[in-house]
Structure formats: C-alpha cells, structure tokens
Design a protein that fits this description.
The complex is a heterodimer of chains A (433) and B (308). With 433 residues, chain A is of the alpha/beta class. Chain A is built from 19 helices and 13 strands. The longest helix of chain B has 47 residues. The chains are: A alpha/beta (433), B mainly alpha (308).
Chain lengths: 433, 308
C-alpha cells in the first residue's frame, strides 16, 4: 500500500513539474513570431496578405508573421477579448476608422508617434493619418483608404434605355422603376442594411447627400432632424416600392456583392473590393458590365450645393500596447504600408501614398493592374466626399442604437421620426455617462 | 474471536482511510483546475457586477452596489429580451420534447430501417452549433437559399421571400434551426430510457385490453418521467442561454427581434465595453436558470421513481 502511495505521489509531482514548465513563459529562441489580426472583406484578400507576409519573412529571417483573418463584423470584439490575455493574443490588429477613440481610452494602442518617419508623415495622405491620430499623437500605421462607391450594371441600364447613370437619388428611383417594369431586375437596388455597421455607412451616404449630419456644431445628435428623417423615409419607401431588394434588411456587404455579381441588381453601394471581384469570372456573372459613377445625392442636397457624398471606411494597423515585440511588429506594419507593396497589390486596394496620384507616378499606378485605369479615377472622384462618422469613445453603442432605429423604421416597428428620436436620445444619454 | 474481529474492523477502516487519502490525492489536480477555471471566474464576475468597469487596461472601476442590476431591471429593452428568450426556450424545448418523444417511440417500435434512423439522428446533433447556424443562414438566404428554392418549385410562393427580414418570423426560423440540431439529443435520451423500461407492464396492460395510446399514456409516459426531467432541465438551461445560433443566423436582427439575453450580455461585455453591466446580466441569467430548474424539480421529480 505504501509503495502504491509513493508511486502516486511521484506521478503527481511529475505532473505538476511538467505542467509548471509548460506554463512558464517561453524564451524567444530563434525567430520572433508576431500575430496579426485583420479582415477578410474589404482591401486585400487573405492570399495576397499571406504572400506579403512571406515576402517580409524572406527579407527578415528573424521575424515570423502569423496572420489571422475574420469577417469585418467580428474584428472589434476579437481585439477586445484578445487584449484580456497577457501577452495579448495579437501583436497588431486592423483598426477601423471608428474605433481609435475607444481603443485609445482603453489603453490598447501603442503610441507610435516617434516611430513615424518624416517620409511617411509627408508621403501618406493626411486623411489616412487622421484615422489614427489623436491630440498630436499617432497610434497606428495607415493601411487602406476606402469609401463607399456607387456601382451600376452598364448592360442593364442600356437595356432599359439609359445612357447615363443617375446623378440624384430621385433619378435613381426613376431608372429603377423602368428596370423593374421591364423585368430586367426584380429588385434593381441592393444595399447592406442588416443590423450592423454597414447600415450606418449606407445611411451616412444618404444623410450627408441630403445636407444632413450625424451631429451639429455643438456635438448634439442632428440625424433626427428633417433631413435625416427624409433620408430614412426614402430608404423605407424604396423597399416598399420593390426597388430595393427586401433582403437588404438582412444583408452585409458580402451579401450585396453576391447579389450584384449574380446579375440580380442594377445598382449597388459598396466598398472598392466589389469592383475587382466583378471582373473575376469565378465569382461574377457580370464580368465587364460594372462601372463606377459618382455617388448620387438628393436633389435638395444638390440644390443646396452638395456636390458629392460618401463615407470614410479607411482602416489602419495598430500595435497592441502590451505586445512584447513592438519593434518587430512596427517593422512589419511599415512594410505593409510601404509604397512598393501598396502599388504591387493595388488591384483590390489603392495606395495610401499621395505621390502615386500625381504627375508621372499616376500613369505608373494606372498601369500597375488591369483594374487601376477604372478604380484610380473613381477613387479620385469619390474620396474628397468621404464623410466621417462621429469620433467618440462610445461609438459602438451609439451606432448600435442607430442601427436599431433604422431597422425599426425599415421593418415598420416605428415611424422613421420616432425611431431616430429614440436613437438620438440614446446618444445624448451615452454622451452624459 | 472478539479480539480478531476488532482488529479486522480496524484494519478495514485503515485500508478505507488509505484509499480515501489516495482518492483525494488523485482528485486534487482536477479540483484545483475546476476551482481555477470555474469557481474563481464566477466569484470575480460576481464582484465585477457591482462596479462600473470599462473594458481596457488599468481602467478605473467605480463601485455602484446593485446599480448595474437596477439599471437593467428598469430598462424596458431588458424585459423585452427576457420575454423573447422565454419564448425561444418554451417553444424550442416544448417542440423538442414532443418531436423527441415521437422519434424515440418510433425507433422503439423498431420499424424497417430503425438502426439507420437511430444512426442518422446523431449527425445533426454532432454538427457544431456554429456550423449548423451557418448552414441554416444559407438555407434561409433570400436570393440563394434552399428554403425559397423548394417552396418556389412546389409553387407555394410566387416570389422569393426575405425570411430573415420578417420581424414576426425571424425568431421562429432560429427556433427551427435549433430544433434540427437538438431534437436528436432529446430523442436519444428518451429512446435509451424507453429501451430500459420493463416490457411486462406493457404486455400485462395489453392483456387487460388497454389500447396502444392508453399503454403509452398511462404506463410508458409516467415511467419516462425521470428521463424527461433530465432532458428538460438540460435543454431548458441550454435554450435559455442560447447565443451562437442567433449570432450566426441573424446577429440579433431584424430590429433586435432575435436578441436573446445571452446575446445582450455579450454586447454589453465586449461590443459596448461595459463589463460591469455584462457581469450583472450574467448573474441575472444564472438566477433565471436556477429558478427554472427548481420549478422542474418541484413539479416533476418523484424520488420513489428514481429509486426504483
């Protein structure tokens, strides 16, 4: 019995020792591994980013890069949970333009102001730096400059007898009615209006195009004024008239792309990635049929002098504040943002460097990929009208209130005015907390 | 003789003591792990629920007592979410029980191909919930889904229906997807219980002239009560805490009509950065599930049946 007792004791001791060794922090032996989280949606596809990572590793044998990809809607919460671990689950992560205030307040982002070289500071578009700069400090490296674009199916419009895309949302409704009546598309317009951030982006496009704004000069919610209510009423009306695909109320941007690329709709509002996918025969039944036009505005907005409207959907990469490898991570982020890499992969994502869009460099950029002769002019025409969503630390909860309001109006639970008033009240409550 | 028997008792006790000591040694690592991964998080979450605790590193936490609980209990959206969750739980578990019992009875009667039926039941149950959710989201897809395809081919609908945008239907569609995944679990538990019932009672009742329904209602069903209780408690607690299938199929839409209490907890904890509120919600969920379990035990548990 005593022997049995000793054996058991020995086995347990061994188990604890092995366990304790297993739990001890790993000493870096050989290359350092950095983990980077980004989205599989807008911008480059995972295969392209993986290739960039492999190229980087070849130049930097002491650093190994492990990329992790998620749908956009999952990234924010994954960063939050990843930061609960020590060291953090990710050394760097993609940061959407609406998150820096919250993440800076939470202490998640490393201040990289001193790492930014004058060449980077001067060369990259100021709008891209705005997305990660607060109070004179920089918290990340710009990566993707994106806006919502208006795309249409040229063949469908021609078939319906239109030579020009619509310039106003009122013209779009007229064209959509003809397309529907002629049976060219059952639901001519498609949007991402599910209860996620996509619906706020699409609403922003319409709100600013009607002369409205999210907040007034004093920072109080203004989207529930006449202009905001008109924009939401218009959204609801296009669903009721069968012009907007009713499935839009449950669609994200990927579903919009699937709908548009299957040739089911004539008009779509989406990020840049949809264009290059539209010319990929393995994904698209409308190869060569898709064109850009400046985002329409409402007639009232145009009369008031509004020349264009869209929403900024740019993103950056930030180093997580608690990473043990800030230097190695910054090296990789600088490589991702480098002009050489950005031009090479510009089919899905246009460069963030100003100089690429000027003089001789512009011709070089347009020749870099088959998509660029179309996407570069579209970007130059649309990006100046990219409006910002509010930059507040409680944005996510405020946005959730607005998402709910829009969905309540679209599904007939509340009138557009009542729904937006309730969301505005929530914004005021959040601002006071 | 007396001395001998006394020493044997002593020896037996000391062997038992030694066994107990080894048993404690063997379970100690597991106990430590359980304390570490279960009890400690429960205690720290409970403490957290009394603070305003923003997500982040080195954030200042403010003690608010029962403030987080009261904030939720005063919020009409919270009560709507509770009602919605109770609806999901009642309909989902109710249908699971009826369908599970029917399938169990069918397998028990051993029709042609019953072994295949029992085997095929395991497949939907073995599919991870997240995969099941993704599959049903595609089935319900307005433009490309199988549901619209089948209904359209059968001539039951003239146009494709955007199912997940219908505020009255979305929760029922999530329930349907959940049923596909969970009915097999209930069916397998009940089928195993049916197989263990003594056939003599059934045969005696048949000899006495009871018909098939009477035999089922008066003999099998009362004997199945302990198994039904187990299935009900497990499934009710799981259904009340439903999260993943909602997250994947609807993300809470349309217009929050499918947001359940666990989903709300997730939103506060991770999306809105309000960990204190999230922790308070977690404890409110625990209280609700404990109440449900107590009610079941109070009304369904008969000690004499389980002893037999």
């Amino acid at each position: 019995m005593r022997t049995m007792y000793k054996i058991t004791l020995f086995a347990l001791t061994l188990l604890f020792v092995v366990g304790a060794v297993g739990c001890a922090p790993q000493q870096a032996a050989g290359p350092v591994t950095i983990h980077v989280l980004t989205m599989d949606q807008a911008g480059l596809k995972p295969a392209e980013i993986d290739q960039i990572a492999r190229d980087f590793e070849a130049q930097n044998p002491d650093i190994k890069v492990v990329m992790e990809y998620l749908g956009y809607d999952f990234i924010h919460d994954k960063i939050t949970t990843g930061m609960a671990a020590k060291p953090p689950a990710y050394d760097a992560a993609m940061i959407d333009v609406i998150w820096p205030d919250e993440f800076i307040k939470a202490g998640y982002l490393l201040d990289v102001t001193d790492r930014v070289t004058p060449e980077m500071k001067e060369g990259i578009f100021p709008a891209a730096w705005n997305g990660v700069s607060r109070n004179g400090k920089v918290y990340g490296m710009p990566w993707l400059m994106d806006v919502k674009y208006f795309m249409y199916n040229k063949d469908m419009l021609q078939q319906a007898g239109f030579n020009e895309p619509p310039k106003t949302w009122e013209e779009l409704v007229e064209q959509a009615k003809v397309i529907k009546e002629q049976g060219i598309a059952e639901f001519p317009i498609t949007w991402s209006w599910n209860q996620k951030e996509g619906v706020v982006c699409d609403y922003a496009v319409l709100l600013f195009g009607n002369g409205g704004a999210f907040v007034d000069a004093s920072g109080k919610p203004a989207f529930n004024d006449e202009k905001g209510v008109e924009a939401l009423t218009w959204m609801k009306q296009t669903v009721e008239d069968g012009l907007t695909n009713p499935s839009a109320v449950s669609s994200d941007e990927m579903a919009v792309e699937a709908d548009f690329l299957a040739g089911k709709s004539a008009f779509a509002v989406n990020w840049l990635f949809q264009y290059s996918d539209s010319n990929d025969p393995s994904k698209s039944q409308v190869v060569g049929q898709v064109a850009f036009a400046p985002m329409p505005v409402f007639k009232a907005g145009a009369d008031a002098g509004i020349k264009g409207s869209s929403v900024d959907g740019s993103s950056s990469f930030a180093i997580m504040a608690t990473t043990p490898y800030p230097d190695q991570t910054w090296k990789f982020l600088a490589y991702l943002a480098s002009n050489e890499v950005q031009i090479k992969h510009s089919a899905q994502m246009l460069p963030i460097w100003k100089a690429d869009f000027e003089g001789d460099a512009l011709a070089k950029l347009e020749a870099a990929t088959p998509a660029n002769p179309v996407t570069v002019p579209a970007f130059l025409a649309q990006f100046p009208y990219a409006n910002e969503r509010p930059t507040v630390p409680y944005y996510n909860e405020a946005s959730a209130a607005l998402q709910l309001a829009i969905q309540e109006a679209l599904t007939g639970v509340k009138s557009p005015k009542d729904a937006l008033d309730a969301a505005a009240a929530k914004w005021i409550e959040l601002a006071g907390q | 003789m007396t001395i001998n028997s006394n020493s044997r008792v002593k020896q037996r006790l000391s062997v038992r003591e030694q066994d107990a000591r080894i048993a404690w040694l063997l379970v100690t690592p597991s106990l430590l792990v359980i304390l570490g991964v279960t009890l400690w998080p429960i205690i720290s979450t409970f403490v957290l629920s009394f603070f305003v605790a923003p997500t982040g590193i080195n954030q200042v936490r403010t003690f608010v007592g029962f403030g987080n609980y009261l904030e939720m209990l005063r919020d009409p959206a919270f009560w709507e979410t509770i009602k919605r969750t109770l609806y999901f739980t009642a309909v989902s578990v109710g249908l699971e029980l009826i369908l599970g019992l029917a399938i169990a009875q069918l397998i028990h009667s051993r029709p042609w191909g019953w072994k295949f039926l029992r085997f095929s039941l395991i497949i939907p149950w073995a599919v991870p919930t997240i995969v099941n959710g993704a599959m049903w989201r595609w089935i319900y897809s307005a433009d490309f889904g199988a549901l619209n395809g089948i209904l359209f081919q059968l001539g039951l609908i003239e146009h494709y229906v955007p199912w997940l945008t219908l505020s009255g239907a979305a929760m029922n569609l999530v329930i349907l997807a959940d049923l596909w995944h969970t009915v097999p679990f209930v069916a397998l538990i009940l089928q195993a219980a049916l197989a263990a019932l003594p056939e003599e009672l059934n045969e005696a009742a048949a000899v006495d002239g009871a018909n098939a329904f009477q035999r089922f209602w008066h003999i099998r069903l009362p004997l199945l009560r302990p198994a039904i209780l187990v299935a009900l408690i497990i499934r009710t607690v799981e259904a009340f805490r439903v999260f993943d299938i909602v997250y994947i199929i609807t993300s809470g839409g349309p217009a929050s009509k499918t947001i359940t209490i666990s989903y709300l907890t997730y939103l506060y904890s991770f999306s809105y950065g309000k960990q204190g509120t999230g922790a308070a919600l977690s404890f409110l969920i625990s209280i609700c599930t404990i109440i449900l379990a107590i009610l079941y035990i109070r009304f369904l548990y008969r000690p004499e049946e389980t002893q037999s």
